[in-house]
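It is worth pausing here to work through a concrete case rather than discussing structure prediction in the abstract. The textbook approach is simple: state the sequence, then state the predicted structure, then interpret. We follow exactly that order.
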Amino acid sequence: MDSIIFDLDGTIWDPIDTVLDSWNKAVQRTHPGEKTMTRKDLESIMGLQIHDIGKKLFPHWSEEEQRSVLNECFDSEVEFLKKQGGRLYPNVEPVLQQLAKKYRLFIVSNCQEGYIETFYDSHRLERYFEDFENPGRTGLSKGENIRLVIDRNDLESPVYVGDTEGDFQAARFAGVPFVYAKYGFGDVSGYDEVVEEFKELGMKF
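Step two, the predicted structure:
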């Protein structure tokens, strides 16, 4: 093993409370009176790409309307996160500091362009990561983005750490072992390793 590729939401941080506030405000600007979303609603779409999020949250709207409103939500959340940040899971920075001494670290997340940069700005953790990727920048699936990061950084034996079934499937697509962050947002149908807390990554690796 020479590297660790991380998912972001539900793996390194929990941004839901900040994102929920921003999304509800964005939706009300364009669709006054629309049902207020809950934390459970956002937990249910973590790890999905934009077309699947739209179908799940706003099935009563056209695909074009779903995409338009979600783009408003994404723009709004970046502004909110720049100001408020998200909640890092316990021990994230010391564990990243420890892992970075032994492994090359990366992030691949299903998010819009600018989101990972906002995470970096909020918590000053960019120095631990060599590279990152997302579909907002490439238009690719998470599995394809994992492969992209592997290929352009000449990684020989990476693992992927994530918390959802989509993360598990992406790791399988990319042909890398999957470490399940059980403390995160989702359930999975399989994994190669499991951690109950972020700090366990420092113990296992």
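Step three, interpretation. The radius of gyration is 17 Å. The first strand starts at residue 3 and ends at 6.
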